[in-house]
From TrEMBL:
SUPFAM superfamilies in UniProt: Aromatic compound dioxygenase
InterPro entries noted in UniProt: Intradiol_dOase_core (IPR015889)
A single GO molecular function term of this UniProt record: iron ion binding
Domain of life where this protein originates: Bacteria
Protein name listed in UniProt: Intradiol ring-cleavage dioxygenases domain-containing protein
């Protein structure tokens, strides 16, 4: 599973703001990278699922576009981690921070939704938040280390 499927439909996102999602897989037991483990990644409003295999340092990187806020939901990306044998080990969501949402959406933002009012993130969003750098013109990069 080394090919990457791009999740890029700019018309359905925050005015086409590019987003690269970078995840680093680390073992919770040893703290070491987990090369060869597979990651699937998707947006809730798209049927496509992207797959990638972690490189020797445990990184995967998915080109995409900033996800829209679904009904009652804060902007986020879904992902799952699989062992080299294909066993599902971890399922989670990557929450995008408010400043990144403001950059991507501008004044439209997310219509009063907050991470605290999102039914899936209440009480635990701090563990699911990404670090985001960049700008709307050149694109944003969401990064998170994932313990498996």
């Amino acid at each position: 599973m080394t090919a990457t499927l791009s999740l890029d439909r700019p018309a359905e996102r925050a005015h086409g703001v590019p987003l690269t999602v970078r995840l680093r897989l680390l073992s919770t037991g040893s703290g070491r990278p987990m090369p060869g483990y597979a990651v699937s990644l998707w947006h809730c409003e798209q049927p496509e699922v992207a797959w990638q295999t972690a490189d020797p340092t445990g990184w995967v990187s998915f080109p995409s576009s900033f996800p829209d806020a679904g009904a009652g939901r804060w902007p986020h990306v879904h992902f799952e981690v699989f062992s080299a044998a294909g066993d599902r080990l971890h399922t989670a969501q990557l929450a995008l921070p408010g400043d990144a949402c403001a950059t991507a959406f501008g004044r439209r933002h997310v219509s009063g939704h907050t991470l605290a009012t999102d039914s899936c993130f209440t009480g635990g969003w701090a563990l699911e938040i990404a670090s985001v750098t960049g700008d709307a013109a050149r694109g944003l990069v969401a990064t998170r280390t994932v313990g498996v």
